[in-house]
């Protein structure tokens, strides 16, 4: 049996490369050997990083060059009552973060939502996109490719769906810029976030495009998808789940629990989240939706880089007959309950807290339920932070909880 020290020796001697140790030893031994080498080079002790609580081979499809794991504290807020399209009843929401005061704030929002009878949430559009870019000779060829794409949707769908049991191609939208043509493929990926699924399926469809037209594929992703970058197309057309949550809170609850008034929150929302964001040229017309998206992404094994799209959200706040109506609409929330990081043991338990680990029945319903829970968490966070700003409690809250 190879031990970590001798594995590290073989790397030093140039016999093995740093990233191929798993082929020669148990995955935990391989991570230990890398820690020895990194410690030697950097002086970092890595004792805490090496003290992880799951077998390293479980993370095989989630990371390369593994040396251990970082730990982020995880807590829960709620239970909060949700009337959703895919989930209904009371649920705790898991959040992992290092920002003190965040869970206190979202928890306050949840308890206020509960006092108001619960939040409503719905996924209103769903589809994961991949947009390859093709080179054509000129605008006339671009037009021909657009027309060919419109006339041959079934051929593209057949090729794409050959690669997946669950994915369904919903549509292909062409965009032309000079002699570059972008075909934005949109899939129903059911309970998977779907980025690998959509990429593999689109690769197969691109082979048909190249075989049947004069176009040449330049790249399987042409950035009009748009993945992991701020982009107006996601805010307008949606990507992943487009999900909205709202609540009507009685005036006395706002006054007693949030120490402010519906009028103050509504004015603040207009001046901060709407006008301030517009002046800043922001896509995020909200206060801190990214906080809840990031914390719930970490707690449930989502791809954390997609917090960029998750923050594409608009918060509204209006006074209705003296009470406070608040909503949050997340245009592009990319979530899954199968695949990716959802398979890791702590993240699976995070999904279990909501009851959405694995595939749903019908397929897609677990990922919809997760999206609705994140939207309600974001609603609670917006409500609490807006109230803290309106009542001038933000700095004192962070002085007390966050340092
Ligand atoms: C801190 C509070 C909640 C105090 O608010 P409070 O009303 O003084 O608290 P309270 O002691 O009266 O408790 C009210 C409820 O809050 C919850 N709560 C209260 N304390 C805890 C705790 N320790 N652990 C768990 N839950 C807690 C709990 O639900 C409690 O109800 P109870 O269960 O007692 O009936 C409030 O001042 C607050 O929400 N402040 C806002 C903090 C915040 O939202 N920070 C988010 C990060 S800000 C940021 O990152 C983005 C930013 C600001 O830059 C974006 C921008 O530009 O806007
Ligand atoms: N490739 C890329 O460009 C990018 C990849 N990523 C990474 O992609 C990963 C996520 O991709 P994703 O495709 O979601 O996950 P996986 O690649 O882990 O694939 C998940 C697979 O689970 C199967 N499956 C089983 N049950 C279900 C169900 N109920 N609903 C849907 N699928 C089911 C599907 O197989 P089948 O298809 O056979 O039906 C699906 O393809 C993350 O690790 C992320 O970090 C992120 C951004 C870009």
Automatic annotation (TrEMBL):
Q: Which keywords has UniProt assigned to this entry?
A: NADP, Oxidoreductase
What does the record give as its pathway?
Metabolic intermediate biosynthesis; (R)-mevalonate biosynthesis; (R)-mevalonate from acetyl-CoA: step 3/3
Tell me which PROSITE patterns the record gives: HMG_COA_REDUCTASE_1, HMG_COA_REDUCTASE_2, HMG_COA_REDUCTASE_4
Q: Which reaction does it catalyse?
A: (R)-mevalonate + 2 NADP(+) + CoA = (3S)-3-hydroxy-3-methylglutaryl-CoA + 2 NADPH + 2 H(+)
**Is Oxidoreductase among the key words of this record?**
yes
* InterPro entries, sorted: HMG_CoA_Rdtase, HMG_CoA_Rdtase_cat_sf, HMG_CoA_Rdtase_CS, HMG_CoA_Rdtase_eu_arc, HMG_CoA_Rdtase_NAD(P)-bd_sf, HMG_CoA_Rdtase_sub-bd_dom_sf
MF terms (GO), sorted A to Z: hydroxymethylglutaryl-CoA reductase (NADPH) activity
Q: Does the keyword Ribosomal protein apply?
A: no
- Enzyme Commission no: 1.1.1.34
Family stated for the protein in its record: Belongs to the HMG-CoA reductase family.
Under what name is this protein listed?
3-hydroxy-3-methylglutaryl coenzyme A reductase
Query: Which gene is this protein's source?
Result: hmgA
